[in-house]
Design goal:
Layout lengths: L8 H16 L8 H22 L5 H14 L1 H7 L4 H30 L8 H24 L2 H6 L4 H23 L10 H76 L3 H15 L10 H16 L3 E6 L9 H19 L9 E9 L2 E9 L6 E2 L2 E2 L11 H12 L3 E7 L2 E9 L2
Parallel strand pairs: 1-2
Antiparallel strand pairs: 2-3, 3-7, 4-5, 6-7
């Protein structure tokens, strides 16, 4: 078997660094962007020095063992920089390693066998130019493929079984790509330089394609589950609206009947104490009248249902709204925005031990050509954000937190926006919808 020149340690480190930085750039990060790049640049220098000292220019079992240990160092940046679980870090580490291995293999194959014989490209400057251009092409193509699923990358959690499957695939690809280096007599090997390079690049390409296909399938499954969950949220809020509508109609009817009966009793009673008692009864049942008169029957029903719940649970809900601004919205859309917004606010303030802090304010007003919806509530525990939205406090993140997503989706469907923020102990949801 002819001696095959290994890929220089410098390029192996650079391509692996680019591989994990590709995924880190998409995933939610712990540090600011400049901090991430600064620390990762230092990590690149250390990684390159260690690879050249202990891995590069070795052969046989020693090379494969130390190269495997080097591959494990790729996990460190994901744990250090990204706000993801260990299963997610292992998953993206395996993907980054195989992608980088493919990139550096194909780049060095073409350079060593076809480009370096050209006199102009034979020196180190020519080597650098070719490897940099090839790296740009490979990782730009990978980034464009990955960018379409950036939202899923940031939101979905990788299950341990999926991470283990990905690692097993990556190990299998690495072993197959290394057979020609270990023995020329093994199946799927060769003793010619060009064939060894081609086999290695082909195996790594197949591994990269499989891992991308697996990831895209995971993203599609996540998107489908999300769509189903959002639809369930919409159906639940719509069902709540219908139930509230029927209950409120009955309550209002009974309330008006009681008002007339109390009026008759008051006219026939001369005792001041008994009259005071009747006044107290009237005040008590007055809380159950549909007090919200916004000009939009759908909004009135939603607000009244939530107001009754708040009254029973010691929550102060105030509302100033011009409901006519939202006459263009369907029952489903109104339920998605106001039902979810108020449910989230109620859930937040219910955790507060001080009843005086259980406050929710709702405003709906015109701002130029937009309907501005603002739902503000006090909160206790500081919310954590993933991107523009807060992360649910419930343990099962993949099956919760769809209320806000439903609001965002409904706003975007009508050409509007939905944003959230926290300031001075108040959580604020702001929805802007173009008035039609």
């Amino acid at each position: 078997m002819n001696v095959v020149r290994n890929v220089p340690g410098l390029w192996t480190s650079v391509f692996h660094w680019l591989g994990y930085m590709l995924f880190i750039s998409i995933l939610p990060k712990r540090l600011k962007a400049w901090q991430t790049w600064l620390v990762s640049a230092a990590f690149l220098a250390i990684q390159t020095a260690l690879y050249i000292a202990f891995v590069a220019d070795r052969s046989g079992v020693y090379f494969n063992v130390t190269n495997t240990l080097f591959a494990l160092t790729t996990l460190i940046p994901f744990v250090l920089f990204c706000e993801i679980g260990i299963a997610d870090a292992v998953y993206y580490c395996a993907r980054a390693f195989i992608l980088a291995a493919f990139g550096v293999s194909i780049a060095w194959q073409f350079y060593a066998l076809y480009v370096s014989p050209v006199a102009l490209m034979s020196g180190f400057a020519g080597e650098c130019a070719f490897m940099i251009v090839t790296a740009a092409v490979v990782f730009l193509a990978a980034y464009l493929a990955e960018r379409g699923h950036a939202r899923e990358d940031a939101e979905m959690s990788i299950k341990p079984a999926t991470a283990i499957t990905t690692v097993l695939l990556a190990v299998s690809v690495y072993v197959l790509s290394s057979l020609s280096y270990m023995s020329s007599d093994a199946p799927f090997t060769s003793n010619r330089d060009a064939e060894i390079f081609a086999l290695r690049s082909l195996v790594y390409f197949g591994g990269t394609a499989m891992l991308f296909a697996l990831h895209f399938q995971l993203c599609d499954d996540y998107s489908r589950r999300e769509r189903n969950a959002l639809q369930n949220v919409l159906n639940t809020q719509y069902a709540n609206f219908r139930a509230n509508q029927e209950s409120i109609n009955i309550v209002n009817q009974k309330y008006h009947d009681l008002k007339h009966q109390i009026a008759l009793l008051r006219s026939s009673i001369g005792d001041d104490k008994k009259l005071e008692y009747l006044d107290e009864v009237e005040r008590e049942i007055g809380a159950f009248e549909a007090q919200n008169k916004t000009g939009n029957e759908i909004l009135d029903t939603i607000l009244t249902g939530k107001s009754l719940y708040c009254h029973e649970h010691g929550i102060t809900l105030t509302c100033v709204a011009d409901g006519k601004l939202l006459d263009f919205l369907s029952v489903m859309d109104m339920s998605a925005i106001f039902g979810n917004a108020l449910d989230n606010a109620i859930e937040s303030v219910e955790k507060l031990p001080d009843p005086a802090q259980r406050l929710i304010h709702v405003t709906l007003s015109r701002q130029k050509g937009f309907a501005s919806i603002i739902v503000r509530n006090r909160y206790g525990e500081e919310p954590h954000f993933s991107g523009a939205l807060p992360v649910t406090s419930k343990g099962d993140r993949e099956n919760h937190g769809y209320g806000l997503r439903s609001i965002v989706a409904t706003a975007e469907k009508h050409g509007g926006t939905a944003t959230v923020g926290v300031k001075d102990g108040w959580f604020s949801l702001n929805v802007l919808l173009p008035i039609k």
